[in-house]
Amino acid sequence: MRIHSAHLLPLMLLTLLAALTFWLERASRVDDNVNGKLRHEPDFVVDHFTLRRFNLDGGLQHSLIARKMLHYPDDDSTSVIEPALTFFGNPLPTRLSAQQARISKDGKQVLLTNEVRMLREASADSPALMVTTAEMVVYPDDEIARSSVPVSITQGRSMIHGTGMEVDNRNRNFTLLGPAQGMIYRSETKTP
What we know:
Blueprint: H1 5-28, E1 44-54, E2 60-72, E3 77-81, E4 84-87, E5 94-97, E6 100-103, E7 110-120, E8 129-139, E9 144-147, E10 151-155, E11 158-168, E12 173-183
Antiparallel strand pairs: 1-2, 2-3, 2-4, 3-6, 4-5, 5-7, 6-7, 7-8, 8-9, 8-10, 9-11, 10-11, 11-12
């Protein structure tokens, strides 16, 4: 029996179609290593948002305002662009700002990075206090902030530099870490 090439053409086309179908199924299959849960890609993005936290008495404790927020499902973290965190627990608010922040998955810790600034408003008896650093970890519910990198504190004409600091905003305490140096000017309105 003799087989003509014309009879083999449909068989070859079916074999080619089966091979292409097998390849397409393999190529389009989502591998566990590359699905969205394991990649560090945002699952949602929020532009221009405000987050407020109230204390037990119903008063505003702190607020977080930012230009953009990105949530990542792989580690359940949140990145924030241009955050501004304000504490309202004292008569004059304390404001923190940075270029970026990373919020832990439980929301208890905020890592501010790039051009971090803390401003404590001026009062009738003391000028405004400004802290600048490259990085600061903030615990918003406790109103505690820590920096393990160099910091500069300016209040009026006085300036002081340290290798790190801890801040307790509720009690209005600053603790400089490591060697510190600076110049502190006496207030001209007070007598010695």
